[in-house]
Amino acid sequence: MRGGLEKHGRYLLAGASVIGLLAASAPEAKAQQAQDLQQIQAQIQEMQATIQALQKQVQDAKAQAAAANATAANAGGGDLDLKVKWKGAPELSSADGKFKMKVRGRLHVDYDAIDQDFPITGRPDVSAAEIRRARLGIEGVVWYDLKYIVEADFANDAVSLKDAYGEYTGLAKDLGLRFGNFKIFNSLDQLNSSNYRTFQETPSFVEADVIDRQIGAGAIYATDHFTASAGIFGPLSANDERWLEDVKTGSARLTAAPINREVNGVHQVIHVGGSWRDREQAESLRLGTNGPDGGVSNPLNDQLFQYRARGADLHLADRFISTPAIFDHDTFWGLEGLFIWQSFHVQTEYTQLEADISPLFAGRDPTYTGWYVDAGWFITGETQEYNKGVFGRVKVKNPVVWSKGGGWGAWQLAGRYDVLDLSDQATTIQGPGVIFNGVGPVANACTLCGEQKTWIVGVNWWLNDYSRFMFQYGESEIEGGNFAVADNTDGFNRNDGAKIKGFGTRFQVDW
């Protein structure tokens, strides 16, 4: 505006000069000059009026801006300072970092085709699709130091609570105190997000030993090279009002990554770790005429533990090895290792579960084992990301964007060998299925106890950082469990010698 006023001033000076020249001209032109002078004076007056109007507009604009700033200051100002990021989903935060919120979710759509060896198992084949996961939730930060996550799963028209916890991080660097419903601290593959695992399902011991989310409190210390976590837990969220005295669980995990680096563009990780869990049964509701506060508890209604796993490591397969529900206490031990060298990784775990049989039943306490080893290779050059003791999100070098003319995504080849052995002490175990007819036991309650050996090969196609297709084929061989009486008239299908073959595929997207 100031430059415009100076420009108009120069025009006025030039006009005055013209007037002087006209005044000095010949006498015969004086009449015409007088008339021209009047016109110029009129134009100058009009320009001066315009300049004054513009100056008033500038002053009004300055006053309005000052008033708006004063109003924002009185209101605190922070509500206007909104930051927005987009990482698969919008993330909103205040400028000072005091508050954050992000929508989170995932969709996993599966199809399984499974040959369940009907001549031996009596189980029909499976050819079915399912919504394996359909989760939606939010995560964020309240007042700098309090993180939270609340997420529910709506798969197959049934709502179940998943992560739902708060975590305070302001006590010390890299330390979090967590309260709510979250994964207990056992098994590398279980603690990995289902969005990042190499295969569709966890190894069979994870399902068999019931390593899952539970309601509790824990402390997590995590850095790039070391993690330590421990917690005390109660029930699964689905059982939080069912029992008079909840299941009591202690869980802890230690990991070390002495090598976690990038050298000449090559991602290198060596990770080792171990974990422990001790769990006691939940006690039953009390029975009696005086309501829940009176009477006595009935041990037959206690939450007794059972161990079992699905064939071919596919979610829609049946379970072909299984113990009876007769155990009231167990202790889990696990060792884990991970090696990453740029596009190649090897992962392994070995576990033991020491199970105690309830005094209500007969048998010697067994020790069940499970282990696996798997490997993956990105033929397109990506690497398996590693973040503080667990897998991270794969970063795809050439995302699939065919509408823009390019990109083939990331391709990974993978294989796994997985073993679960539930056969220990099977010949001694007599549970609820054991009855006597005056001669001897008609059936042994561990006719389905046995060993399952599974191998899997797979291909994963990452379209981008947030979506992929998974394809895998696996076979499980079932051994043991053949513990019937001599006349073989027990009527139990024992599955010994069965071979379960399955093909699985998944489309997933997360945000």
What does this structure look like?
This protein is α+β, with helices and mostly antiparallel strands and 511 residues long. The chain is built from 5 helices and 24 strands. The strands form 4 sheets. A 16-stranded antiparallel barrel has the order 3-4-5-6-7-8-9-10-11-16-17-18-21-22-23-24. Helix 1 (2-23) packs antiparallel against helix 2 (30-74). The chain is elongated. Mean pLDDT is 85; it is low at 286-293, 434-443 and 484-491.
Please give the structural blueprint.
Elements: H1 2-23, H2 30-74, E1 82-86, E2 90-94, E3 99-115, H3 118-121, E4 126-142, E5 146-153, E6 160-168, E7 175-183, H4 188-191, H5 204-208, E8 213-222, E9 226-233, E10 248-263, E11 266-280, E12 286-287, E13 296-297, E14 308-310, E15 319-322, E16 327-341, E17 344-357, E18 367-378, E19 386-387, E20 390-391, E21 410-421, E22 451-464, E23 467-479, E24 499-510
Antiparallel strand pairs: 1-2, 2-3, 3-4, 3-24, 4-5, 5-6, 6-7, 7-8, 8-9, 9-10, 10-11, 11-16, 12-13, 14-15, 16-17, 17-18, 18-21, 19-20, 21-22, 22-23, 23-24
Q: Which second-level CATH architecture of the largest domain applies?
A: Beta Barrel
Q: Which regions have little confidence, pLDDT < 50, spanning 5+ residues?
A: 286-293, 434-443, 484-491
Distance between the termini: 49 Å
**How does the helix and strand content classify structurally?**
alpha+beta
Order of helices and strands: HHEEEHEEEEHHEEEEEEEEEEEEEEEEE
Shape: elongated
Assembly type of the shown chains? single chain
**Main β-sheet, in a few words?**
16 strands, antiparallel, barrel
CATH top level class name of the largest domain: Mainly Beta
Count of domain modules: 2
Kindly report the name of the CATH homologous superfamily of the largest domain: Porin
Q: Supply Rg.
A: 37 Å
Count of individual helical segments: 5
Helical content class: 10-25%
